[in-house]
Amino acid sequence: MGYKVLNWSELATDPINKLSLEIVKEGLEASNPYLSVLQTLSKVSKQIEKYSNIVVIGFGKASYNMALACEESLIERISGGAIIVPHGSVKSSALKKIEVLEGTHPVPTELNVRSVRKVLSYVEQLSKKDLVVCLVSGGGSALFTLPAEGITLRDKQEMTRILLAAGPTIQEINCIRKHISAVKGGQLAKLIYPAHVLSLILSDVVGDDPSSIASGPTAPDPTTFKEVLNVFERYQILENVPNNILNRTHLGLEGRVAETPKPNDKIFENVTNMVVANNMKALTSMAKKAESAGLKAMILTSYLEGEAREVGKVIAAIAKQIVREHLPLKPPCSVFFGGETTVTLRGKGRGGRNQEVALSTLIAIKGLQNVKFVSFGSDGVDGNSDAAGAIVDGTTFQRALEKGLYPNKYLEDNDSNTFFKQVGGLIITGPTGTNVNDLSFLIVLP
Amino acid sequence: MGYKVLNWSELATDPINKLSLEIVKEGLEASNPYLSVLQTLSKVSKQIEKYSNIVVIGFGKASYNMALACEESLIERISGGAIIVPHGSVKSSALKKIEVLEGTHPVPTELNVRSVRKVLSYVEQLSKKDLVVCLVSGGGSALFTLPAEGITLRDKQEMTRILLAAGPTIQEINCIRKHISAVKGGQLAKLIYPAHVLSLILSDVVGDDPSSIASGPTAPDPTTFKEVLNVFERYQILENVPNNILNRTHLGLEGRVAETPKPNDKIFENVTNMVVANNMKALTSMAKKAESAGLKAMILTSYLEGEAREVGKVIAAIAKQIVREHLPLKPPCSVFFGGETTVTLRGKGRGGRNQEVALSTLIAIKGLQNVKFVSFGSDGVDGNSDAAGAIVDGTTFQRALEKGLYPNKYLEDNDSNTFFKQVGGLIITGPTGTNVNDLSFLIVLP
Predict the structure, then answer these.
(1) Nearest CB neighbour to A280, from listed B311, B313, B325
(2) S-S: B313 plus which of A59, A305, B115, B211, CB 3.0-4.6 Å?
(3) Chain B residues closer than 8 Å to A320 by CB
């Protein structure tokens, strides 16, 4: 069914812990790929009822559960299709009409290229009376790999290596990726045209830019071959770029190979990109849950970034202000944060971004009454641990000391999971089959 | 007069820059020591009108300007007094009745001890009909140094060295400081008793705990000699502690030297500790100014901590949420932050906490329309630069690139001041004579 019931650790006796975990559950339900696709298809049912032939394609970690929802609501009208999932991630398929193909992740191989060709075989001969539902989720960029004509997989890999060493922005990397691919940067939409496209996107990209998620196969690409050359020059890597890629760039500059489709291209009249779930949707559901329990709720950001241990200090600073100044909210209240922090490894412990934010926060809220903080990864897998995240409060520090554990020592060693295993507070959900990044919240009571 | 007019750089043409700088000015006025003491004395004038003999003492970087305000409002009733300022900081005094003494800062010397004895000579023979106004500000802990009986200045210095190497918390350090001092941890209040004390405190401590500011000479001390010993044992430094300090600790444990005065001590019936200015007061004035200009205003925290470059990312994450989701506020709006971030030096550039937060923020808000961010030190001196801070927006990144400057490179080298000198945006106030920590804010327009 694609929906996982949560498997909590021993925390659920305290009523605020209980509420906290209900809020976590709400966040996971709101980002559940199966439920999200079901809801979205029901919302657009009027607009798509005219299509009697529907083809479903997809790529990404959540595409199997998203495909299940498509068959659930559209089975009669689906003529076929195929999705690409990470190798080994779907043991046996319950899908009746949609084929399950595999690809390697995160490094694409010939397996991926074969799978992409198979997917394309379903959509290339369609008419404007047909609809392609395209399921996009995290990991899709690697799984949906098909180099442009004249480019080899080896060229792409070499290019990736050179780019990572040079350190361009993610926008610059995407610009190049799209121009050496046969399907990215809106080119899939072009191949499908004149059939219509409904892309259902589960976003694991902060900000949800459709041209960034899986390198935007059905979204217009405003970038050009000119910018590809600019990036090569800006980072002084022109001489290292593989010949095939350099040749293609020059052909592109001379107009001898086609540009990626631009925003004003007529093909996009037939394309609808819809985000079915993202960080903000999860935060909104969680905030509603908090409100229904009588807490004021504020969504502070869904763009959270920064080193986990430092982000924890800022979150604690907000908690202190609420406790001591009743600003920006008066308790009982809650503040929600979403996004993706970073952990720069210093030690060799076990843990992840969410547990490390929680560990840093508990140190900074030491002794503060009536404050809870929860942080968890929506995918259920935080770093190299088997937990999704952790729940902490102003008493956690003292409880740790009483067990002879020094929180700062565990933070120094990136060993948050080992810490919480001993002190309590781990949130364990198992892999949730979704990914809308990390979700966290403060609760402050009067 | 103690009040400094701001000396802006070339930014004031853009109307939002202009408003931003007016908000900065508001923050500086609200934390001005002279004005703050004047306002407070006028507020308590009824309560102190019964005292015909007032002695003014003080210590800290702002004590001269605070003393000027005392003479301004109480001159007729002041019989005398003395303040301790950093060596060389007051060239010529306009004070008529209050003596200006000097001490070294941050490392106390015999000069400080002589000055403290002189200050005490003004307050030790008073009666319960007299009032001592005690002016406390940043730097006061070092300036107001008088070791307890049997302890030498050398012992104190050695103890400080050992503590810094062992890495206890600031609370633990203060516990020890108070128990090896003759005046800290409420002991000054005890020496003044039965005369009454009105302590006017300019707080540079996040959270304003009166027992922390200048080690709380007129505030009760809940810590004990037992805890001193606990700290020595916890950090395994018992064998390194100077003999005189160990002896005093044991005498204290045996009740043979007096504990610091505890919260229920009757001497505190005669003591009033008032914070005349702090970070929150400055933020509140700034937020009011923003509101009067038509911006919604939210004070998010006055407890901001964390590595400057990471804090900048979190501030940018909040800006993005406002621009894209209109949450937690709808533009036009402003969000205020106060506290003290940290800079871990990696490079060898010129800059400070505030300029580095601003540099990190401008990188993360690159391209974002209608966002301004300002961060500045209320003391007017950010790090090793001659600026107080900087103002940035979504166009600063592009302006830097056009000048051939890569913002990330300057951030990497802790060279924020050099960056802003070339790109523009420095806020230069000169030393302001106050310190209520750092102040910063976002403005987002529709």
Answers:
(1) B325
(2) A305
(3) 207, 301, 303
Interface test with B, best of A310, A336, A375, A437 (most B CBs within 10 A): A310
Q: Residue A306 and residue B317: Cβ atoms within 8 Å?
A: yes
Determine, yes or no, domain membership for B230: no
User: Could you tell me if residue A234 is inside a domain?
Assistant: no
Nearest CA in chain B to A206: B317
Residues B265 and B349 reside in one and the same domain: no
For residue B304, the distance in angstroms to the closest alpha carbon of chain A comes to 5
Task: Say if the ipTM goes beyond 0.90.
Answer: no
Number of domains in chain A: 2
- B2 is a domain residue: no
Which residues form the domain of A131? 33-146+181-223+260-277
Residues B289, B375, single domain; the answer is yes
Residue B245, pLDDT score: 97
- Domain assignment present for residue A23? The answer is yes
Q: Which residues of chain A have pLDDT under 70?
A: 1-12
The reply to whether B69 and B24 lie within a common domain is: no
For A315, the closest chain B residue by CA position comes to B304
Closest CA in chain A for residue B310: A306
Whether residues B62 and B110 share a domain: the answer is yes
Instruction: Write out pLDDT tens, residues A90-115.
Output: 999 999 999 999 999 988 999 999 99
pLDDT digits (tens, 9 = 90+) for B278-291: 999 999 999 999 99
Partner-chain contact B321 A300, CB within 8 Å: yes
pLDDT of residue B10: 54
Chain B residues whose CB is inside 8 A of the A339 CB are 317
Task: Quote the pTM value.
Answer: 0.89
Whether A75 and A192 share a structural domain: yes
Can the peptide bond before residue A222 be classed as cis, meaning omega within 30 degrees of 0?
no
A306 shares a domain with A352: yes
Would the CB atoms of B305 and A321 count as touching at under 8 Å? no
Q: What is the CATH number of the domain that holds A212?
A: 3.40.50.10180
Q: Do A300 and B311 touch (CB under 8 A)?
A: no
CB pairs under 8 A between A and B: 89
B269 and B311 in a single domain? The answer is no
Same domain, B62 and B209: yes
